[in-house]
Amino acid sequence: MNAPFLEQQARQTLAVVDCDIHPAHRTPGELLPYLEPRWREHYQTYGVHVRQALSSTLMYPRMMAAGMRTDALPSAGPAGSDLDMLRKQHLDPVNVEFGLLMALSKGGMEERNPEFAAAMSRATNDWQIDHWVRQEPRLRAGIVVPQEFPEAAVTEIERCAADRRYVQIMLSSRPSDPLGHPRYWPIYAAAERAGLPIGLHPVGYNGGHPSTGSGWPTYYLQEHYVFVACMEALAASFIVGGVFERFPGLKVVLVEGGFAWAPALAWRMDKHFDKFRKEVPHLKQRPSEYLRRHIWWTTQPIEEPEHARHLVEIIDWIGWDRLLYSSDYPHWDYDNPSFSFKFPMTETQRRKIFRDNAMALYRLS
């Protein structure tokens, strides 16, 4: 798990857009300068109050080393906290043209105190610009929002959206309610107005609910797999809840949740839609049409079937314009773009996945 990063035999020649890089706070107090005195005192006195009993730990077994590679540890601070190491270990050797930040460190998405959640989200967004994007022009930020408090989330989206250094709106894929629920719709309306995609990424807290949906996992293998089940449930909720019918311009990116399951989910939903469509008269299209029109997927961790042609057939169904390269730096299952696909692609397909699809979706230039 913690073997050294694979050394590049030669510099990556194709410029890539990496859609999943995790920045970390070098010290626990790194957000303090970005909080108003009232919330700075609150943070120092009470800390955060996330949707689980033990706010200082991740759910078993991901609490161990936070899933980071030991060879990504800088001399001071946790993995992901050193910009120079990010440049030397990832941005430069793999020729990253743009890297999208996924700031998951208690930024407000899971905070239970509504006003504090808004303050933490605002601080995290300002911190991303100051500590990362302003210092490294290849990086772009995602807007962290207090997603359980949609009115405050909309305020934060509208504060940041005009700044083109923010390229998407981040939501946790483990919300309190399925994300198709109308309580979240103000966020989608704001995203549509801003022209920004919604990026869903798994986070460590489940709100006290078993991550599998059928009890607590026993092994890390199970915990890592349930990212898929989580994304399937959210994709179905978006579609069947009518989100894409209400917001036809909304674009959703499923990050770190795989994609090989997409055709099977669509086939199953289409079959049931044909029988139960009177229950959902708000849907004007078959579920598979919404899925293929409104959802994008990132590549890490990519499924690896025994016969690579099976993965090609799945991408043919999803669309070669729907996949986005992601590395998950600095986590243990980091994907180097030189080794992350084990089947041949045409030059056009390769350029789409590693660069062009993300350039178009996030309007990067």
Automatic annotation (TrEMBL):
SUPFAM superfamilies, alphabetized: Metallo-dependent hydrolases (SSF51556)
Start and end residues of each Amidohydrolase-related domain: 17-364
Coiled coil (residue ranges): none
UniProt keywords, alphabetically: Lyase
Cited Pfam families: Amidohydro_2 (PF04909)
PANTHER family on file: 2-AMINO-3-CARBOXYLMUCONATE-6-SEMIALDEHYDE DECARBOXYLASE, ISO-OROTATE DECARBOXYLASE (EUROFUNG)
Identification of the protein by name: Amidohydrolase
Organism annotation: Bradyrhizobium ontarionense
